[in-house]
From TrEMBL:
The keyword Oxidoreductase applies. Its EC number is 1.13.12.-. Signal peptide: none annotated. It comes from the Bacteria. This is Nitronate monooxygenase.
C-alpha cells in the first residue's frame, strides 16, 4: 500500500483526497449524494453541472457541502451560455477545483477561475491541445479515451496515454479516463506516469447514486459490446458520438436520421432545419433515463467498462475494491 500511495501521491495531493481517484462527472447522476459519498470514501467527487443555471448549481454545491467536509469539484460544460456566472458561483462557494469539459476553454475563463482561487482541470483530446491548455494555465489534464461513456472523441485511452503521458506527465498531473473498471488497470496507468484516474460508469450503481433502479439494472445487465457510439448515416449531417447502451431509442435514432435525410432530399426541409431536427432527437434523453427510468427511449450513456459493473454497492466498497485490486496487482508484479 505504501508503494501504491507513492504512485498516487501527486494526484491525491492535487485533489486533497486520500486516493488519486476522480469520480467522472455524469450529468444527472453526479449530484450531491454520489459526489459526497465518493469524497467521503477518499476519492474526489465532481458535481456535473450540465445544463444547470447558476442558482441551481449554487444549491447543489451547498447541498454537497452539507454532506461532506472533504474536497470535491464541479464540472462545467464550456458551451454553457452562462459559463462565466457558473465560474463565479463555484468561486463564491469556495469550490477548490473546476473541471472544464465539452470543449477547449478560453485562456480568459481559465484565468478567471484561477484568479478566483480554484485549480483548473481540462480535457485534452490530443497532444497539441494538451500543450496549449497548459500554456493557457490548466493545472491538470484529463485524457479520456473513446471507451468512455457519454460524449467521446475518436481515440482510445490506450493510444492517448502513450501519446500524452510521456510528453506531459512531468509538467502537470494527468488523469486518465475511459473504460477503467478494475484496480489492475489503475495501477498500469499510474506506472505509465498518470497522476490518477477518472471513472464514471463504475459508480453509477453505487448505493448512494440516485439513478433510477431501471437505469442501474441496465448497467448491471450491460456488457462492453452493448455500449456503442451513436452512428451517423450521412456525412452532411454530423452526429456527435455518444457512447450508450443500445435500446429502442438508439435504433429509432437511425430510422429518424433516414426520415430526416429523405425530407431534406425531397426539399421538404432545409439543410439547417434537418441538422437541428437530428440534434434535437436526444434532447432531455439522459434525464428521461436516469431520473424517470425510461430505459427504452432515454439515453443510457455508459462506458465499455459497464461489463465490470456487477452489483449495487456503497461507493466506499467500490473504491476499496479498486484500491485492493491495484495493491494486490502491485504485490504480484513485484514478485
Ligand atoms: C451517464 C454519463 C454521463 C456523463 N456526463 C458527463 C458530463 O456531464 N460531463 C463530462 O465531462 N463527462 C460526462 N461523462 C463522462 C464521465 O465523466 C467519465 O469521463 C467517463 O464516464 C469515463 O469513462 P467510464 O465510464 O468508462 O469510466 C458522463 C458519463 C456517463 C456514463
Amino acid at each position: 500500500m505504501a508503494e501504491l500511495d507513492r504512485l498516487m501521491a501527486r494526484g491525491a495531493a492535487f485533489f486533497g483526497a486520500r486516493y488519486a481517484l476522480m469520480g467522472g462527472a455524469m450529468s444527472w447522476v453526479s449530484e450531491r449524494n454520489l459526489v459526497a459519498a465518493l469524497s467521503n470514501a477518499g476519492a474526489f467527487g465532481v458535481i456535473a453541472c450540465g445544463a444547470m443555471e447558476p442558482e441551481r448549481l449554487a444549491q447543489e454545491i451547498a447541498g454537497t457541502q452539507a454532506l461532506t467536509q472533504r474536497p470535491f469539484g464541479v464540472n462545467l460544460i464550456t458551451m454553457h451560455p452562462r459559463l462565466e456566472q457558473l465560474v463565479d458561483t463555484c468561486l463564491e462557494a469556495k469550490v477548490g477545483h473546476i473541471v472544464f469539459a465539452g470543449g477547449i476553454p478560453s485562456g480568459a475563463i481559465i484565468k478567471k477561475a484561477k484568479d478566483g482561487g480554484a485549480k483548473v482541470v481540462c480535457f485534452a483530446p490530443a497532444l497539441a491541445l494538451a500543450k496549449k491548455l497548459v500554456r493557457s494555465g490548466a493545472d491538470a489534464l484529463v485524457i479520456e479515451g473513446s471507451e468512455a461513456g457519454g460524449h467521446i472523441g475518436p481515440v482510445s485511452l490506450n493510444v492517448l496515454a502513450q501519446e500524452i503521458l510521456p510528453a506531459m506527465a512531468e509538467q502537470v498531473p494527468v488523469f486518465v479516463a475511459g473504460g477503467i473498471g478494475r484496480g489492475e488497470a489503475i495501477l498500469s496507468f499510474l506506472q505509465m506516469g498518470a497522476a490518477g484516474v477518472q471513472l464514471g460508469t463504475r459508480f453509477v450503481c453505487a448505493t448512494e447514486s440516485i439513478a433510477h433502479p431501471l437505469f442501474k439494472r441496465a448497467f448491471l445487465r450491460g456488457n462492453a459490446r452493448d455500449a456503442v457510439p451513436t452512428q451517423q448515416i450521412d456525412e452532411r449531417f454530423p452526429v456527435i458520438p455518444v457512447r450508450a447502451l443500445v435500446n429502442a431509442g438508439t435504433k429509432r435514432f437511425m430510422a429518424h436520421q433516414a426520415e430526416v435525410l429523405a425530407k431534406f432530399q425531397s426539399g421538404e426541409l432545409t439543410k439547417e432545419a434537418a441538422q437541428l431536427d437530428i440534434e434535437h432527437f436526444w434532447a432531455g434523453a439522459l434525464r428521461r433515463a436516469v431520473i424517470d427510468g425510461d430505459v427504452e427511449n432515454g439515453s443510457l450513456m455508459a462506458g465499455q467498462s459497464v461489463g465490470m459493473v456487477d452489483r449495487e454497492a456503497p461507493a466506499a466498497e467500490i473504491i476499496a475494491e479498486l484500491i485492493g485490486q491495484a495493491a494486490a496487482a502491485l504485490v504480484r508484479r513485484a514478485a
